[in-house]
């Protein structure tokens, strides 16, 4: 099973270590940095499920980091938990003016924080289930609307390309033969025209841009969609 990823942006070493140790032993993949600039870069490269964000950071404070995250089409779906010791900022955070999804006050109980982390991540995956939207890094596939977004922008795919991509997303990690794709995407026997599949895959890859590598060719067998590879 894929580990959920948590990014910790915290400049106090003790708290950093406390979070790192506890989150790792709770089964999360943990990334850590002590400043907002690196935090934003890591978020862009790693797309964590949740960011635990300290309010008081040197150079760029947590509110600014949160504002930048939530105004970036690629990053705004990442959940943010603010950590603050400053009572007066709570209203702004709680008001979700900046789009934070939750907050904890320092000093916090690590047990309570872990429960909240779990709840946020579960809620996030439930929301995705309910909306039937598949998300991975900058990719979003809305099964209800049959719409595909890349880095926040709607990408125009043909009906066949949409069906192909949907088939891949629903069968991640499995090699799908050309025959299988012809039957399930085109919907009828299309004997002898398996090159049709190759042509459409080629076009789909172009539209996936920097994510085109997610569709692997398994020589002689077919194609495999591997978003984590
Ligand atoms: Ca701090």
Number of domains in the coordinates? Answer: 2
CATH superfamily of the largest domain, by name, is: Response regulator
Number of helices: 8
Principal-axis shape equals elongated
Name the CATH architecture of the largest domain: 3-Layer(aba) Sandwich
Biggest β-sheet description = 5 strands, parallel
* Largest sheet, spatial ordering of strands: 2-1-3-4-5
* Ligands (ions, cofactors included): calcium ion
Structural class: alpha/beta
Average pLDDT over all residues: 88
Top CATH class of the largest domain: Alpha Beta
First and last CA, distance:
14 Å
Strand content: 15-25%
Integer-rounded radius of gyration: 21 Å
What is the helix/strand order?
Answer: EHEHEHEHEHEEEEHEHHEE
This entry's quaternary arrangement is single chain
What does this molecule look like?
The chain is an alpha/beta fold. The chain has 2 domains: 5-128, Rossmann fold, CATH 3.40.50.2300; 130-225, Winged helix-like DNA-binding domain superfamily/Winged helix DNA-binding domain (Arc Repressor Mutant, subunit A). 42% of the residues lie in helices and 22% in strands. It is built from 8 helices and 12 strands. It has helices spanning 13-25, 36-46, 62-70, 90-94, 110-131, 159-170, 178-186, 194-208; strands at 5-9, 29-33, 50-54, 79-84, 102-105, 133-136, 139-142, 147-150, 153-155, 175-176, 215-218, 222-225. Strands 2-1-3-4-5 form a 5-stranded parallel β-sheet, with helices on both faces. Strand 7 and strand 8 (147-150) form a beta hairpin. The longest helix is centred in the middle third of the chain and has 22 residues, at 110-131. The radius of gyration is 21 Å and the shape is elongated. It binds calcium ion (CA). Calcium ion binds next to loops.
